[in-house]
Amino acid sequence: MARSTTPLNSTQIDKAKPKEKEYTLADGKGLYLLVKPNGTKLWRFNYYKPYTNPKKQALISIGSYPDVSLQQARQTKDEYNALLAQNIDPQAHRIETTITEQNRLVNTFAYVAEQWKASKEDVIKPLTLSKNWRIAEIYLLPHLKDLPIDKIIPAVVKPVLDIPYKANKAKMFRKSMRLLNEILDYRK
C-alpha cells in the first residue's frame, strides 16, 4: 500500500531552513520541494517513465519557490499525472511542446520580417531601410505579426492593405504592398 503524505502548506515551505546537506519536503503524488544548502528551494516532480521495462525513475524540475507558488506546482503536478495516465512521458511532452512553440514563433510574419530587415542592412541605405521598416511597423506588423507566414493569403492581406488605401494614402498603399511582397518572397 502506498504511503500517504501530508500535503505541504506555505508556512512549512517558508519555515524550511537550509541545512548542511540538501533535503526534501514531500507534497505527495510525486511533487516535492528540494531545499539546498544555499537556501534555494526548488520544485521537483518524480515519476516512472511509461513504456520502460523495468520502470525507470525520472525527475522534472518545475521551478524555484517563490517564483513558482505551491498552487502552481500542484497544478503542474496534476498536468503531469494526467499525461502519465495517458502513457505520455511528461518530460518528452514538455520538450515537444517547447519545440512546437519555437517553430511557431519562427514561422510568424514578425520573425520573417525581422530576418528580412537583417538581410537588407548591408544591401540598402540605412535611411531607406529605416523608412521601409517604419511602414512595416505602422501598416503591416500590427495586423500580421502573429500570423504564421503560410497563413498569409490575399483574403487576410486585403483588409490590412485597405487601411492606407481607404485613407487616400495611395503612395503608402503601394509601398506597403511592395514591402509585404518583399518580405513574403524573402521567406521562400
TrEMBL record:
Q: Does the keyword Membrane apply?
A: no
Integrase DNA-binding domain residues are 8-94
Superkingdom per UniProt: Bacteria
Q: Where is the Phage integrase central domain?
A: 109-186
Q: Which UniProt keywords apply?
A: DNA integration, DNA-binding
| Sample GO molecular function, one term | DNA binding
Q: What does the entry give for GO biological process?
A: DNA integration
Q: Which Gene3D superfamilies would you find in this protein's record?
A: 1.10.150.130, Integrase, DNA-binding domain
* Keyword Membrane among UniProt keywords: no
Similarity comment: Belongs to the 'phage' integrase family.
Protein name, entry field: Prophage CP4-57 integrase
**Organism expressing this protein natively:** Mannheimia haemolytica
